[in-house]
Design a protein that fits this description.
The complex is a heterotrimer of chains A (about 350), B (about 325) and C (about 280). Chain A has about 350 residues and is α+β, with helices and mostly antiparallel strands. Helices cover about 30% and strands about 25% of the residues of chain A. In chain A, the strands form two sheets. In chain A, strands 3-2-6-7-8-9-1-10 form an eight-stranded mixed sheet, with helices on both faces. In chain A, strands 5-4-12-11 form a four-stranded antiparallel sheet, with no helix packed on it.
């Protein structure tokens, strides 16, 4: 497999061509923000920044139809209905273009859960196997970025099929998988030649922009040490407003809701992104709620990513370090600070004279 | 003594009688503030006051005052924030006697979205910004290789351009000088532009916008007036008014419900739009509703503690509603 | 289970039994006869019932794998889905996703004395195990059933209970919260809270297992009573209920720490539960 070059001007043409055969999701200006949208012929993708929304949409869409149902009334007996159900598995092939390495790598967090020995989710697997990721190496390190803390870096090609490295005038396209390589078999690409060296330099330069990595080793145990310390979680969650910005924007948050949405006698069973910060998420029919306050719920979110998931999946942290949850949090809750607080926790000294009573 | 020093002093004196005082501290970088929960005197040192202090802290009140652990709450409030408290008090949604307000005068808050746009126009990016200084009418941002200077009006929140309540009202304490009331604009520029659109284009405008709502409910949860909290109709299955499907129509339906529930209540703090991760122009709805309430009932929410909100009362014949005329 | 674990099998209700004012039992058969013939499960496993247009909810399969004429589910009316299920009649269709989750360790329990302690709808998950044990009676020691409900009319499975009371290889004690007319004539009928009656019955922990299910508050005091009677943590089994959506370990709401009640449960030994974070 050989690295190739595509000029800025040719990216649109390439996506136009790709969209003949596949659904192409690419970052687009959507009014004032950049989100992943189905590519529209002639529109230039926005490849110079991290889209607000995560690339998981390509494989794990916010709305996934699981099945359709249709009730038929019995003309002889109007009290009686029969119901027909039809499975609706995804059929499309897709290319997600323009995710950052962090967002693409987020898919590995899904893979371990949705496609493993225990379970194979056919909706997820169907999309995953038919979706290729053309990732853009990151050149813009923001204050919320911490991919390197969770074992990645700005040019990480894990889970990507092609890595585009920005160089003067365009991108060096480095094929990562055979299928990715096939995408580059197109007249819009030329051999990368000497530009490969420039790409290597770009990668190195951006790697060096990151500060020393924080060490999360053992953070799961430290978090579990604090599990029953609700005061700790109340302090950490005090400013959280229990919205779902962090979970919906997270490239690794994979929890979902299933609801039936009817129109008259027909309807669909939908799988939609759900939000563990919401009171309803675990509310039981009886009114009992195992995670009744935002302290319980934030504890679950942080622990899921930094304690439970690593415990179940060989130490892998369920966080890709993209920082969307920090950047888009309306009140700037910082998940890094919460984990660090658990890691460095020391009990507060008892107030003076407080013990004597 | 600076406003901040006065504020700290007032909080220091009041803290022994309060369970918590909520203000702001520096956030995860130089560009962001974040809410600060002051429980001990030592926490007061972290308090900041600047145009970065965008959050309307009243949104925590309904949650806190229902908790058995917290009885007495202090809150630092700007003018707009204090209007939320007035309105909540009128609606008897908060035990006002347990709330102590530390008011400040506000000359406007920073819009991170507008600043980032401006900075990018100047050839820099969000990651290049290292420090920010507010200097009267100017905002100076230290970027890689220099300083960029902007007129504050070009990077402040849009609500600040039309603000008629820069000073906190009906508070127990007030720190610093009152800020002169001097709205820069009569009407929000975005609303003026929107109202120029013919009706069919307005609908197309909303369809184009609502498509990208992810229904994260950040707009709802930052809203100090959204008091239903864990029992919002948008996530209810019974009644089942809104589908979980994040489609243009359903998103629009949710935003409409949100707007309707704020009729005569919205105090234009703009938190909904500021909180929106996909930058939906939610304030267009809010302002339109605010104007409708003003025109119909001659009422401004949260402006006068003695007034009765129009939807908490009724007249047999409303002055501006011609019920029989159609 | 289907190849698509999220796609329900279509099933038909063959019989509806009114158990109590708010509990109704549905006997169903999968429409695909070959899948019905091939259906196998173990006592304690659960299924998701679909009322299309309303959603899915989780119920234990409370029939026994030893009797495969139908699958039986008991539904207490509490929410949207259960209210809809209560409107279904014989001949109506519904969706079934089963079996899901783990089951009671029937092999490990072999040769032991078994005490069942059930409260209210908590009888449903114990019913499947009790019937299974009775159908394999010789493999197990002394079997005792303590079943409590608020009042006699809140007691489900009346027909079963009548039959069980007649058996001489099963000790049955029933209890209700408050005295009630016509109740208490037989020594099998008691008045009092389950943990108190359990202490009274005084089952021996020697080579024994206790299986309990019921409302959280009942479980809490039953566990205390069992501990006092000398039952060790690994001699106590319970089955948990949590809000579930997918039932296959994906959707992320039924987890207690690293354990997903839908796949790692719903059956847990108390010794396992104690090791879990406290988030029931």
């Amino acid at each position: 497999m050989e690295a190739k070059f595509i000029s800025h001007d040719d990216t649109t043409g390439w996506l136009d061509a790709l969209s003949e055969q596949h659904v192409v999701l690419a970052p687009m200006w959507d009014n004032t923000v950049v989100t992943f949208r189905p590519h529209v012929k002639g529109r230039t993708p926005v490849l110079d920044r991290m889209p607000v929304l995560p690339p998981k949409e390509g494989v794990f869409p916010q709305n996934e139809m699981l099945l359709k149902y249709k009730y038929d009334k019995d003309p002889e007996n109007l009290d009686r209905t029969s119901v027909q159900v039809k499975e609706t598995l995804p059929q499309d092939t897709a290319v997600v273009v323009g995710a950052r390495p962090c967002g693409t790598r987020g898919m590995t967090v899904f893979d371990r859960v949705y496609n493993c020995e225990k379970i194979r989710d056919p909706y997820y697997v169907g999309r995953r196997e038919n979706t290729l990721f053309v990732t853009v190496a990151c050149t813009r390190i923001e204050s919320t970025c911490f991919c390197h803390d969770v074992g990645s870096h700005p040019a990480d090609a894990e889970a990507s099929d092609v890595l585009l490295v920005p160089v003067a005038g365009g991108y060096v396209a480095e094929p990562v998988t055979e299928r990715g390589n096939a995408l580059l078999d197109s007249p819009f690409f030329a051999p990368a030649g000497e530009r490969s060296a420039e790409a290597a330099e770009v990668k190195e330069k951006n790697r060096a922009k990151l500060p020393a990595a924080h060490d999360y080793t053992g953070c799961g145990e430290k978090l579990m040490d604090r599990f029953n310390d609700l005061a700790f979680w109340e302090e950490q969650s005090a400013k959280c407003i229990s919205c779902g910005a962090c979970t919906y924007l997270c490239p690794t948050c994979y929890c979902f809701n299933i609801t039936d949405e009817s129109v008259g006698l027909t309807g669909k069973r939908l799988r939609t992104w759900d939000n563990c910060m919401s009171f309803q998420f675990t509310l039981e029919g009886s009114g009992h709620n195992p995670r009744p306050t935002k302290a319980h719920r934030l504890r679950n979110r942080v622990n899921h990513k930094f304690a439970y998931y690593p415990d179940l999946h060989g130490g892998a942290i369920a966080c890709c370090g993209c920082g969307r949850c920090i950047k888009s949090c309306p009140v700037s809750v910082d998940i890094r600070a919460i984990v660090r607080a658990a890691q460095t926790y020391t009990p507060k000294p008892a107030p003076e004279g407080g013990d004597e009573r | 003594m600076s406003t901040l020093e006065q504020l700290k002093e007032q909080i220091r004196k009041a803290l022994p009688d309060l369970d918590v005082v909520i203000g702001w501290e520096q956030g995860y970088d130089a560009m962001h503030a974040t809410p600060l929960f002051i429980r001990e005197e030592a926490d007061i040192d972290r308090l900041i006051w600047s145009p970065l202090c965008v959050h309307s802290l009243g949104t925590y009140l309904t949650g806190l005052t229902k908790s058995s652990k917290v009885q007495k709450v202090g809150l630092v409030v700007k003018g707009c924030d204090s209007r939320a408290i007035v309105q909540l008090t009128q609606e008897r949604m908060i035990p006002r006697e347990n709330v102590t307000l530390f008011g400040v005068g506000c000359s406007g808050c920073l819009s991170h979205a507008r600043l980032e746009y401006k900075v990018e126009q100047g050839g820099h990016y969000v990651e290049d910004m290292h420090a920010i200084t507010f200097n009267g009418d100017k905002v100076e941002v230290a970027v890689d290789g220099g300083v960029e200077s902007f007129d504050f009006d070009t990077v402040c929140l849009e609500k600040c351009l039309t603000c008629r309540f820069p000073n906190a009202i009906a508070t127990e304490h007030f720190a610093g000088e009152e800020v002169p009331v001097a709205p820069k604009r009569e009407k929000a520029p975005s609303l003026e532009a929107f109202e120029k659109l013919p009706l069919d284009e307005r609908f197309a405008f909303w369809q184009d916008q609502m498509r990208r709502c992810v229904r994260c409910y950040a707009c709802r949860n930052t809203c100090p007036m959204c008091v239903c909290r864990d029992h919002c109709i948008s996530t209810s299955r019974n009644p089942h008014w809104v589908s979980q499907e994040a489609s243009t129509a359903e998103n629009f339906m949710f935003q409409m419900i949100h707007t309707m529930h704020l009729a005569g209540r919205c105090i234009e703090c703009g938190e909904c739009q500021r909180a929106c991760p996909v930058d939906l122009p939610i304030m267009l709805f809010r302002r339109t509703m605010v104007h409708a309430v003003k025109d119909t009932f001659n009422y401004v929410s949260g402006a006068d503690p003695e007034a009765t909100p129009p939807l908490l009362t009724f007249k047999a014949e409303e002055d501006n509603i011609n019920e029989r005329g159609w | 289970m289907n190849a698509n674990p999220i796609l329900p099998d279509m099933a038909t209700i063959i019989e509806v039994v009114d158990e109590t004012p708010n509990i109704r039992t549905f006997r169903v058969r999968l429409n695909d006869e070959s899948r019905m013939q091939g259906f196998s499960f173990m006592p304690g496993q659960v299924g998701q019932l679909s009322a299309f247009g309303f959603g899915e909810a989780t119920f234990v399969i409370n029939s026994s794998p030893t009797r495969m004429d139908y699958l039986q589910f008991s539904v207490m009316r509490v929410g949207e889905v259960t209210s809809r299920l209560h409107t279904l009649k014989e001949g109506d269709s519904l969706g079934v996703r089963a079996p899901l989750g783990n089951w009671f360790p029937v092999d490990e329990m072999r040769g032991k004395d078994i005490t069942f302690v059930a409260g209210g709808i908590g009888m449903a998950p114990l019913r499947t195990l009790l019937v299974y044990l009775l159908d394999n009676r010789k493999d197990y020691g002394k079997i005792t059933l303590l079943y409590g409900a608020r009042s006699p009319r809140d007691m489900a499975y009346q027909e079963d209970v009548r039959e069980w009371r007649e058996r001489d290889d099963l000790d049955v004690v029933l209890t209700v919260d408050a005295p009630s007319e016509g109740w208490g004539e037989s020594p099998q009928e008691r008045v009092g809270l389950i943990p108190h009656v359990l202490t009274d019955i005084n089952p021996s922990p020697e080579n024994a297992v206790a299986v309990t299910c019921g409302p959280p508050i009942m479980i809490k005091f039953t566990l205390q009573a069992l501990k006092k009677l000398g039952f060790a943590d690994d001699q106590i089994l319970t089955t948990l209920e949590k809000r579930m959506k997918c039932g296959v370990g994906l959707c992320g709401r039924c987890n207690i720490g690293t354990k997903y009640v839908c796949v790692d449960g719903p059956v847990f030994k108390y010794s396992e539960l104690k090791d879990l974070p406290d988030e029931l």
